Amino acid sequence: MEKIKVAVVGYGGMGGWHADHLLNSDVAELAGIYDIKKERRQCAEKNGIYTYDTLDDVLSDKSVKIITVAIPNDSHEDVVIKALEAGKHVICEKPVALTLESLELMISTAKRNNVLFSTHQNRRWDVDFLAIKQIKESGEIGEVLDIESRVQGSRGIPSDWRCEKIHGVECCTTGGFI
Ligand SMILES: NC(=O)c1ccc[n+]([C@@H]2O[C@H](COP(=O)([O-])OP(=O)(O)OC[C@H]3O[C@@H](n4cnc5c(N)ncnc54)[C@H](O)[C@@H]3O)[C@@H](O)[C@H]2O)c1
Questions:
Q1: Could you tell me if residue 174 is inside a domain?
Q2: CA gyration radius, the chain
Q3: Which of 46, 104, 133, 164 is least enclosed by beta carbons within 10 angstroms?
């Protein structure tokens, strides 16, 4: 079976994680990465990964079917819309959008271009989440009125852009993690 080619935009913490998983996937293949910072592209090259010089180079690569967007939250919309308009399926990191309008624009653009758009809500695939979902759907425990689930970052929220409201996150003082 031919593997589906995926490009990763943003080669930071999560982009590196996506790239590593793609390198080990049985069904998908890492076409390459694009990062706005030259040093991050150089880092990928050192790791043996093909790098695109510009986002346009990623978008015009016809072999790329899926783009994973792993850049700061306030930049998601621009890259996601461009990728969808280029006919690529898109998986965007969470939180995917800063406003409801922004999310609706992404969804309508995906529909208009007949491509898939999803967000990397990885917690939805955790075994505890799936177990609770299965129990709820079985009806075993009757009607569920409320479920509270929390994941605590062991080292708190990382610093950098995540502490600035303009990028979509406001508070770095708690141990919580989005
Ligand atoms: N799913 C999860 O569990 C999880 C965990 C951590 C972060 N995230 C999300 O992943 C996204 C990225 O977070 P991170 O921790 O990897 O950040 P990061 O700062 O480690 O990496 C972001 C990278 O994007 C690059 N970048 C910035 N703007 C760009 C652009 N316009 N085009 C190309 N590259 C660009 C930066 O140079 C940087 O290398 C955020 O949306 C964040 O909320 C999700």
A1: no
A2: 18
A3: 46
Atom of ligand 1 nearest to the CA of 17: 16
Express each pLDDT in 115-127 by its tens digit.
999 999 988 889 9
Query: Counting runs of H as helices and runs of E as strands, what totals does the chain give?
Result: 6, 5
User: Considering the entire predicted model, what is its pTM?
Assistant: 0.89
β partners of residue 86: none
Q: Which atom of ligand 1 is nearest to the CA of 120?
A: 1
State the residue range of the domain holding 141: 136-167
pLDDT tens for 143-166 read 999 988 877 766 766 778 877 778
Element (H, E) at 127: helix 127-138
Which atom of ligand 1 is found nearest the CA of 92?
Answer: 41
> Is 162 part of a structural domain of the chain?
yes
Same domain, 56 and 144: no
130 inside domain? no
Q: Is the CB of 162 under 6 A from ligand 1?
A: no
